[in-house]
Design goal:
The chain is an all-alpha fold and 207 residues long. Helix content is 76%, strand content 0%. The chain has a single domain, classed as Ferritin. Helix 6 packs across helix 8. The longest helix has 29 residues. It is globular, with a radius of gyration of 17 Å. It starts with a helix and ends in a 9-residue tail after the last helix. The mean pLDDT is 92. Bound molecules: fe (ii) ion (2 copies).
């Protein structure tokens, strides 16, 4: 059964567990730079699709992961197309991809050496983290923008990314001990809160 929109909103507050809520100034800034925010969003969706493809390639022996991520690739690519259509409908341009400071900072936190399981877990939690923050940002837009059409537009993304966040956590718990996942997720949340605190509040990017 599909969760009701009401329960999704409550879930986002309680389940995502983000340590630092988005600065309320961000939504207003984003509203003023619609072309930039849409462009950035379009590339975020592309990157999400690419990351799912590389997880499938890297972990092709894990059948559940392959089966669950295959449709997410299609979904993320569908998101890219939706955002692209929105850009073009408004007579705006896709523009260039920017350097992604947020994602690069998160990447630093992922385990590079050590056990195979540890590296695998961090790759899933890295994805879950980006989904969780994106979901929170889309929630801000879906509640804070003045334009009703855009509020609905972003609500759809918010709901999707909430599902993806859960999927990555579920996948982690399928292959790795739940207690280990929970402990490491908490470390990711703390780290991400620090990253957010140090990032400039800019309306031309999703993160
Ligand atoms: Fe997406
Ligand atoms: Fe996603």
């Amino acid at each position: 059964m599909e969760p009701s929109t009401e329960s999704i909103s409550t879930d986002i507050k309680t389940i995502l567990g983000l340590k630092l809520p988005t600065d309320p100034r961000w939504t207003k800034l984003a509203e003023k730079s619609l072309q930039d925010i849409l462009t950035d969003h379009a590339y975020c969706e592309q990157k999400a699709a690419i990351s799912c493809i590389s997880l499938i390639q890297r972990y092709s022996c894990k059948q559940k992961l392959v089966n669950e991520l295959a449709p997410i690739v299609t979904e993320e690519w569908g998101h890219f197309r939706l955002v692209l259509a929105e850009i073009q409908k408004r007579g705006l341009e896709l523009g260039n991809q920017r350097k992604d400071d947020y994602v690069n900072a998160l990447r630093q936190f992922g385990q590079k050496g050590g056990s195979e399981d540890g590296r695998f877990l961090d790759q899933l939690l890295f994805m879950a983290m980006i989904e969780a923050r994106s979901c929170e940002r889309f929630k801000q837009l879906s509640e804070g923008l003045t334009n009703e059409y855009l509020r609905k537009f972003y609500r759809r993304f918010m709901e999707s990314e909430a599902g993806h966040y859960r999927l990555f956590i579920d996948l982690a718990e399928t292959y790795i001990d739940k207690e280990k996942v929970r402990k490491r997720w908490y470390e990711w949340l703390i780290y991400e809160g620090e990253v957010m605190k140090n990032l400039e509040v800019r309306g031309d990017r999703i993160h």
